[in-house]
């Protein structure tokens, strides 16, 4: 049975991929030996082989059948028409953020001479320095490091935490349990000897969220221990939790509550999936450091790698010393000219790509809600825009079926069957559907989640909302 069809008969073989008009697609001819052989290759242990000698022998001919009265495609397009007012509000958000980014480019006087790149140490790279300047203004910060040397958002967050925390300090997680990949950074899970914060003598506490999934403001008001609590960490997005994304207003309130107890506490914000979902960023409302990945929102789906940290200038200097080495500072880090240009261009495209992803998420929520599945955020115009739409599917089998359908509509690896498996950084089996041009770029279009009750898949990204329309047909 189809994940999207409830008790109705399966329609998975009757999508637009199976026929053109009323023409039945003929079975594939017997395959010849393929040139590409990659036995056992898989991404993070969640894939069948990227390439095999031949397609599976169990493949059935694709057969067109008569359409039902209201096809899945018709349902999806009807949802999109009902969402016209919501899409219009997203367009207004995109316009405001494009204006913000363009102003930063203009103020930094960005020109073709900034796309030359550098080699070796990367000293004196005018383009890289200008990119940092642009990113700092976009983030509402004093300074920024936008670097290809950050391999992920988790790496950027870890660099910031290790730059600020010292033995005997305490890290306080303000918005419940942080994202799974931070567990090994903190030291609550992972291999001994890896050099976690716990092994460096850094304490850790976290404040549980309320039953409604919001910050416990009463508990936060007395949570800081002056002279001991050094970092108060806020995760903006839901991560792998069924809770709403935090609004900029909530982050601003949290900063004020924390600083009122001890002004010296450094407020860090995991900004992954949060960039350009509002007209302001956390540094603009008092956060000391924000961190994120360039293969999510701010890379505009074309930056090939990298991450960023933005915030107070003195703290950014410490992050530079942590990323590279003490004494090296921020005047280092080579980046090729073509990559540097893509980072500039991706940042300019980022508000538009984020807007398309928000539209796709609203479509996912609307359709799956109508099919009877709990979704977060709820359908319609949300109080806070979220790049992540959580769908509670209820079983391991449903997660595999949904992710399999999404993978079939991806441009890369559409022939791959996602399988739950062990993935570096995660404590549970995780399943990924993300056939993307940039490896791991969940902002392009992805559906993933840890395979554990209540079996929730997290839908993210989308370079155009109509790709989500096709992906939902596949699911």
Describe the structure.
This protein is α/β, with parallel strands linked by helices. 32% of the residues lie in helices and 13% in strands. The strands form three sheets. A seven-stranded mixed beta sheet has the order 3-9-8-7-6-4-5, with helices on both faces. A five-stranded antiparallel beta sheet has the order 10-11-14-13-12, with helices on one face. Strand 6 (229-235), helix 7 (248-261) and strand 7 form a beta-alpha-beta unit. The longest helix is centred in the last third of the chain and has 34 residues, at 337-370. Residues 1-45 and 48-59 have low confidence and may be disordered. Pfam families: Met_gamma_lyase (PF06838). InterPro entries: Met_g_lyase_put, PyrdxlP-dep_Trfase, PyrdxlP-dep_Trfase_major. This is Aluminum resistance protein.
Short overview:
This protein has 475 residues and is an alpha/beta fold. The protein has helices at 72-82, 84-107, 126-139, 153-164, 183-186, 217-220, 248-261, 313-323, 337-370, 396-408, 465-474, and strands at residues 19-20, 23-24, 143-147, 170-173, 203-206, 229-235, 266-270, 289-293, 307-311, 375-376, 388-392, 430-433, 446-450, 456-460. 32% of the residues lie in helices and 13% in strands.
């Amino acid at each position: 049975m189809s994940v999207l069809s409830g008790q109705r008969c399966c329609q998975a073989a009757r999508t637009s991929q199976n026929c053109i008009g009323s023409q039945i697609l003929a079975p594939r001819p017997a395959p010849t030996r393929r040139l590409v052989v990659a036995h056992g290759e898989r991404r993070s242990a969640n894939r069948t082989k990227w390439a095999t000698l031949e397609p599976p022998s169990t493949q059935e001919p694709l057969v067109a059948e008569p359409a039902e009265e209201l096809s899945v495609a018709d349902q999806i397009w009807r949802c999109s028409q009902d969402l016209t007012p919501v899409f219009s509000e997203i367009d207004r958000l995109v316009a405001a953020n494009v204006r913000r980014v363009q102003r930063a480019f203009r103020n930094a006087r960005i020109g073709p001479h900034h796309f030359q790149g550098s080699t070796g140490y990367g000293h004196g790279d005018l383009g890289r320095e200008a990119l940092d300047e642009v990113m700092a203004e976009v983030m509402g910060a004093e300074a920024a490091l936008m670097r290809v040397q950050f391999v992920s958002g988790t790496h950027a967050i870890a660099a910031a935490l290790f730059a600020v925390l010292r033995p005997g300090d305490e890290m306080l997680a303000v918005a419940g349990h942080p994202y799974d990949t931070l567990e090994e950074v903190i030291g609550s899970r992972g291999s001994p000897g890896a050099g976690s914060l716990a092994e460096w003598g850094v304490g850790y506490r976290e404040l549980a969220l309320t039953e409604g999934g919001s910050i416990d403001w009463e508990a936060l008001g007395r949570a800081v221990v002056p002279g001991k609590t050094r970092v108060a960490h806020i995760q903006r997005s839901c991560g792998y939790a069924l809770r709403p994304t935090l609004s900029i207003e909530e982050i601003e309130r949290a900063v004020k509550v924390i600083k009122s107890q001890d002004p010296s506490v450094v407020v860090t914000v995991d900004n992954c999936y949060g960039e350009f979902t509002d007209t302001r960023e956390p540094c603009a409302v008092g956060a000391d450091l924000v961190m994120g990945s360039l293969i999510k929102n701010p890379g505009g789906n074309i930056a090939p790698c990298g991450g960023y940290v933005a915030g107070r200038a003195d703290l950014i200097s410490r992050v530079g010393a942590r990323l590279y080495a003490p004494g090296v500072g921020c005047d280092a880090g080579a980046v090729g000219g073509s990559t540097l240009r893509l980072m500039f261009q991706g940042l300019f495209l980022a508000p538009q790509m984020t807007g398309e992803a928000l539209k796709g998420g609203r479509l996912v929520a609307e359709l799956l809600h109508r099919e009877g599945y709990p979704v977060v955020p709820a359908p319609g115009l949300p109080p806070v825009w979220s790049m992540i739409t959580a769908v509670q599917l209820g079983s391991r089998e449903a997660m595999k079926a949904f992710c399999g359908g999404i993978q079939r509509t991806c441009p890369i690896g559409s022939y791959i069957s996602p399988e739950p498996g062990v993935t570096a950084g995660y404590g549970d089996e995780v399943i990924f559907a993300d056939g993307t041009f940039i490896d791991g770029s969940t902002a392009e279009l992805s559906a993933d989640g840890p395979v554990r009750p209540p079996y929730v898949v997290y839908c993210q990204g989308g370079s155009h909302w109509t790709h989500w329309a096709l992906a939902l047909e596949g699911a």
